[in-house]
Amino acid sequence: SSENQYRFIYFNHMNLAQKTSVHSKKPPHVTISPDLMRVLSDINADFQRSQEDGETVIKTMTDCWVVGRRSDQREFFVVLNQKNANLIEISEEVKRLSATHFNNIFFLD
């Protein structure tokens, strides 16, 4: 099952609200390796440089998917451990996670 095979980070630059599951002890244990942290950091740096809303999706050499979304000074990063998923399935999963955890917050579709 792919259920809960993810970790996320949310940050709102307007009110400094943040939410994360990166350090969650709940199973299954999806770990964020130093390499994945670098990818997240690189996406964040790209968002800071451009200051434009958008989305970045990366499939790593270890078959993890990393998605970064920026919309209206809100940033949402997701690491998904679904190696057999395709881009459409990952996009749908991120949309579902956004609705589940942040149903009152607008994100680009």
Q: List the total number of helices.
A: 2
Task: Indicate the percent of residues in helices.
Answer: 25-40%
Radius of gyration: 13 Å
Mean pLDDT: 85
Structural overview:
This protein is α+β, with helices and mostly antiparallel strands. 29% of the residues lie in helices and 28% in strands. The chain is built from two helices and five strands. Strands 2-1-5-4-3 form a five-stranded antiparallel sheet, with helices on both faces. A hairpin with a 2-residue loop joins strand 4 and strand 5. The protein starts with 5 loop residues before the first strand and ends in an 8-residue tail after the last helix.
Topology at a glance:
Elements: E1 6-12, E2 18-20, H1 34-50, E3 54-59, E4 65-71, E5 74-80, H2 87-101
Antiparallel strand pairs: 1-2, 1-5, 3-4, 4-5
Summarize the model shown.
29% of the residues lie in helices and 28% in strands. The protein contains two helices and five strands.
Notable traits:
109 residues, alpha+beta, five-stranded antiparallel β-sheet, 5 strands, globular
